[in-house]
From TrEMBL:
Keywords of this entry: Cytoplasm, Transferase
Annotated family: Belongs to the KdsA family.
The protein's name: 3-deoxy-8-phosphooctulonate synthase
GO molecular function: 3-deoxy-8-phosphooctulonate synthase activity
Species the sequence originates in: Mesonia algae
Main localisation: cytoplasm
Taxonomic path: Bacteria, Pseudomonadati, Bacteroidota, Flavobacteriia, Flavobacteriales
NCBIfam families, A to Z: KDO8P_synth, PRK05198.1
Enzyme class at the top of the EC tree: transferase
EC number, as in UniProt: 2.5.1.55
Length: 273
């Protein structure tokens, strides 16, 4: 079973708080990444939340061919490294191809497998063989029980540093739901994260741009904490409307401190049960 304190540079592992993976959907520029990271770290230091900066170095799963995919692989990965070196925090990014694994592992601490690729054995194995922590996103089409097999692919590569993330399940063609019954199931075989913002996506819109319900972020987050998730995943931006990816479901960073403060209070309460 993965141990949180094995993640390089992570802090507050003895705080009994949930850990947090948070940052922008995609790396748009160095200034943007550093600005967001600094604001989140100020909050997580205050609340003693173990924190990992999240940013995609490229976006492969896009609705339209003209959608933003990135600023350049190496350029974005160097920005992720700069965030880590500047603020002394671990970083996570998602990979999409086998060749991405070794390349991204040179720059970040956690490799994330996107939900739509989590059954791709070669990709999961390539991530595991880097020796980095692997975050497996549950496919929108998969049961919680089936994620055990994805976890086993990592541990069979002699890598125990694996966690799973629920990001909702498809409900019809254009909506997602979170089945909270899956949290205790997945926690039996790996630390479990709830991806709040992607769980509120509304994909497959006729415009070709994914929609979302950011007004429900606190509702889903509260329910996750009450149900003992180990970690939370929240994408955030100082101007979601202008974000180049997933702006429709991201949290405006000005609301992050209040949200996390409320969630930490809930966590302290349930720790007594």
């Amino acid at each position: 079973m993965m141990k949180l304190d094995k993640i390089p540079q992570i802090k507050y592992t003895n705080s009994d708080n949930f850990f947090l993976l948070s940052g922008p959907c995609a790396i748009e520029s160095e200034e943007m990444a550093l600005r967001i990271a600094e604001q989140i770290i100020t909050i997580t230091d205050k609340l003693e939340i173990p924190y990992v900066f999240k940013g995609s170095f490229k976006k492969a799963n896009r609705s339209r061919i003209d959608s933003f995919t990135g600023i350049g692989d190496e350029k974005a990965l160097k920005i992720l490294r700069k965030v880590s070196e500047t603020f002394h925090v671990p970083t996570v990014t998602d990979i999409h191809e086998v060749s991405d694994a070794a390349m991204a592992a040179e720059y970040v601490d956690i490799l994330q497998i996107p939900a739509f690729l989590v059954r791709q054995t070669d990709l999961v194995v390539a991530a595991a063989e880097t020796g980095k922590v692997v975050n497996l996103k549950k496919g929108q089409f998969m049961s919680p029980e089936s994620m055990k097999h994805a976890v086993t692919k990592v541990t069979d590569c002699n890598n125990e540093q694996v966690m799973v993330t629920d990001r909702g399940t498809m409900f019809g063609y254009q909506d997602m739901i979170v089945d909270f019954r899956g949290i205790p199931t997945m926690r039996e075989f790996a630390p479990t994260v709830l991806d709040i913002t992607h769980s509120l996506q509304q994909p497959n819109q006729t415009s070709g741009v994914t929609g979302g319900r950011p007004d429900m972020i606190e509702t889903i987050a509260r329910a996750g904490v009450v149900n003992h998730v180990d970690g939370l995943f929240i994408e955030t931006h100082f101007d979601p409307a202008s974000a180049k990816s997933d702006g429709a479901n991201m949290l405006n960073i000005k609301y992050l401190e209040k949200l996390l403060t409320n969630l930490v209070s809930i966590r302290k309460t349930i720790n007594n049960f």
